[in-house]
Structures are given as C-alpha cells and as structure tokens.
Specification:
This protein is an alpha+beta fold. It is built from 2 helices and 5 strands. The protein has one domain (3-73): Ferrous iron transport protein A (FeoA) (SH3 type barrels), CATH 2.30.30.90. A 5-stranded antiparallel beta sheet has the order 4-3-2-1-5.
C-alpha cells in the first residue's frame, strides 16, 4: 500500500521509500523517513497535491511522490 491509497483523515506509518537519488533525498529532508507517522489531512479539489501532517507540521506532497512511499495503515 502506498501513501496515495490512504483515505482523508486516516493515519499510517512509513515502511519504505521506493525512489532513488535526488527525489528520495528531498523526501527524506522533509521528514518522511522509515517509521514516521503520517496523517492525510485533505486533498486539493483536483486531487493533487495532498496535505499531510508529519512530525508535527503540515506538508503538501504531489501524488507522484506519494505513490513512491510505501506505508502501513494505522
């Protein structure tokens, strides 16, 4: 299951990042690392981006990036 599949208002825990190189580094710099708790807050009207809470702050993330983050539902 990926972060893309999590419903609004639901939480999950990061299991694995599937990207390599620069994109992976950017995602990790935002605080999305293995074991991080993520809550999906809302989705933009056209479906992209999604607004999440991670490590106590809000973050907007593109669906294409969220698709590469494997999670375990809480």
């Amino acid at each position: 299951m990926t972060l893309n599949d999590i419903a609004i208002g639901s939480s999950c825990t990061v299991e694995k990042l599937n990207d390599d190189g620069e994109i992976r580094r950017r995602i990790m710099d935002m605080g999305i690392t293995k074991g991080a708790e993520i809550c999906v807050q809302k989705v933009a009207p056209l479906g992209d981006p999604i607004d999440i809470t991670v490590r106590g702050y809000h973050l907007s993330l593109r669906r294409s990036d969220a698709q590469n983050i494997e999670v375990i539902p809480a």
